[in-house]
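Summary for the steering committee. One of the milestones for this cycle was to obtain a three-dimensional model of the protein with S-adenosylmethionine bound, which we needed before selecting residues for the alanine scan. The sequence and ligand used are listed below.
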Amino acid sequence: MTELIWEGKYKDGKKATPIRIALPFQTIETINESKQQRQKTLDFFVAEPNSPYKDWRNRLIWGDKKYVLPSLLPEFAGKINLIYIDPPFNVGSDFSFTATIGDNPETDEDETTKFVKQPNIIEQKAYRDTWGKGLDSYMQWFYETALLLKELLAEDGCIYVHLDWHVCHYAKAILDEVFGYENFRNEIIWYYPGRERLSENKFQSKHDVIYFYGKSEKAKLNPIRKEWDREDRIKAMRRKIHKDEDGKEWFWETRGQAHGVDAYKRYLDEYIDKGGALNDVWDDIQFLRGNHPERVAYDTQKPEELLSRIITASSKDNDLVLDAFCGSGTTAAAAEKLNRRWITCDLGRFSIHTARKRFLGIDNVKPFIVQNLGKYERQQWMNAEFENPEDRLKQERTYKHFIIELYHAKPLDGYTWLHGAKAGRMIHVGSVEAPVTVEDIKSSIKEFWQLVGKEKSAQVNGVDFLGWDFAFDVNETAKQFAAENKVNVSFKKIPREVLEKKAVEQGDIKFYELASLNIDSKIDKRKTSITLHDFIIPPDDVPEEVQGKITHWSQWIDYWAVDWNYRDDTFHNEWQSYRTKQIPKIELTANNTYEAAGKYTVLVKVIDILGNDTTKAIQIEIK
Ligand SMILES: C[S@@+](CC[C@H](N)C(=O)[O-])C[C@H]1O[C@@H](n2cnc3c(N)ncnc32)[C@H](O)[C@@H]1O
């Protein structure tokens, strides 16, 4: 068969294949699982108490498809019934997004403002992975995606690949190679009428292409019909329409005459209501304009109607639907409403946040979980980046030196807890495997005093803690301990960009301080209310003029959620308030009534307008 070759497709005479490391997923949040709600949603989801799906949770995964897809294989190889992907292909605009500054609660007007958030380094890196060497790298990236998706697809499953004129013709050759030319079913043209634009050198592009493949001949379509527009259909029929005495319209149906069936009287309404067979040109689904109520401020968002059609045609109740490029979550939202199970992933933080809000807005949304590959992705990176995998200690040291250098500090050897120094401050680097805990901080502070005691001349005035993650109680407890011990501490997040070698080589990696959140709690017998009082976020990459538009701290907050009884496992989202286009205000107080006396940890998670989250724990006692 004819084969498409691109640079990088073959290495030493063999086709280069995707990374196949299966990393374990970490559940970072469960949504919709409060005790009462849990039962309600379970009952709703599972009509049959013995259903094999009763323990199933839909999954929203934050991560690059290159790690997520192989990690899904052990559990889902050959088990996904339907895959839809809408991969990035719109050169240049893949990773910027439009963020919205919320409403100031102290003014009456709705003064929400939008601004474009440029891609961060990791997103730029993903972009370079995809497009770095132009079409050649895109082809390899796309080919590897297709290979893994094929393994995930059930024998009677289907895949739909959404593209446009930029790459569709190349992608078709790859899909034929991976899925088999014989399994190609349709090139669907999604034609979207709308704004007309004249150009001097090309016709206006008005369609996307969706390639549809079955995994094998076992893949079947559910019959779906296209609704007819009455007037258009009557015109197209070119038949004389008669009227009964009561005004009911009919025509002579002549189809079948060639096989000896006599023409018969057919009522127009019944005929039109039945609709027609769907063909491969879909011109009845509108492109989502900026002001469309379904819009969730995600530039590449596709209409739910498009996905509903695909899902209805190629899956049934409870089937499992996968979308590896979640974006605003259109596929999962449509699957949810059609009672399919779903898994979706995206490497963009903003996508995950947008999708989570979107799912929460669906009536009776079934419980779902948010996952990532967390520390396993980092461990993987550490093993790959630093030599001596057999000598953990040496490896650990090389890793710490690396982070210290990125922080533009000098490594400090011979100490257990302090790993570097910069501008008179000491530095502790958190391990890749666990969050920085209060114990780590206390030990570092003790060592700091031993060191300062020894080197009285040193101009040291504090410790910077660099961590991938921080235990929830760090901000409060550790800051208090530090103050008692007269050490100034600051907590900074090691950005995910560090995982990407090229990003490190290219850019100045920024370590931002943890956002800080002030919360008040009021307890009245079993009733508790908590109120947000202040939220300060590091400037990150919000343009200055945008920062100037923020006149109340709560405008940084896009969403917040509460777990009223956190038990050191996963954040169980039991209450939440968030801004939507329709309701741009958020509440600043949440209430709960506890069923039993006891000591509880309340965990509050705030997500800012850029999709970053900050979590804080408070302890309460119900008597
Ligand atoms: C065209 S958009 C998908 C839009 C989506 N169909 C919707 O209706 O909202 C493509 C998405 O792929 C994501 N993406 C790009 N590269 C990725 C990768 N390597 N792994 C996972 N997601 C990726 C981008 O963040 C973006 O959200």
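Key point for the committee: The chain has four domains: 15-91+133-221+283-372, 226-277, 386-510, 513-622.
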